[in-house]
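Issue: copy button drops trailing tokens. Both records pasted manually instead:
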Amino acid sequence: MSDAITHYGQLRELTTDELAYVLLMLDHPISADALAEMERCARPVTVDDLVAIAYVLDTTPTVLLSHIPIDMPEPEGPFATGLPSDVDPTELRAWIEGGDQARPRVAGARVGRAGRPPQGQVGTPRGTAAGSVRRAA
């Protein structure tokens, strides 16, 4: 996310100060210093921040979330918190963008409350009737 703010800001030829100013005009004030901290991964980006920044940068939150720098070294751990470490950038991007790819594979079955697999979901492909709850018409 941090590189995405920098990358798309440069593409739109916006400085951090200009980005901060436009965000202020949209009633979502984020200081230039706070934006710089986001770019350095020193400050978390909220969902509200993500939406506002994406709007100003004329892109979508999904594009910002799925941005993986070309020159990024191979990470030692997962690309995102909560994902298995063997999920590759292509798989992550496809999942975030909602493409035809399935969600990233997991090492074990999904679990529900108290560590039990959700009823009807163990071994059931996503989107099939066995894992779905339907309302009566």
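Record 2 (pasted manually too):
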Amino acid sequence: MAVLAWLLIPLFAVVGAAIWGSWASRNKTIGDVAELAGYARFRDAMERSHTVTAGTSTGSAPAAAASASALPEREAAPATTTG
């Protein structure tokens, strides 16, 4: 009976390795397509947010107002002279 137990240990290891190998080599392209599409939407949104200028906007009015209030323009620092 002890010999049977020692033979079952490698058998379970082989079965576990086969299950893990089939899981690791599964087809991952289905998730990649959706992920790449999401990344493209993110990139487009970031480009739109950078194209908003002080006088014009390329998006809707609420989006332009939100981006304008989120990033205030910096004022020029007064020039100081030493001497």
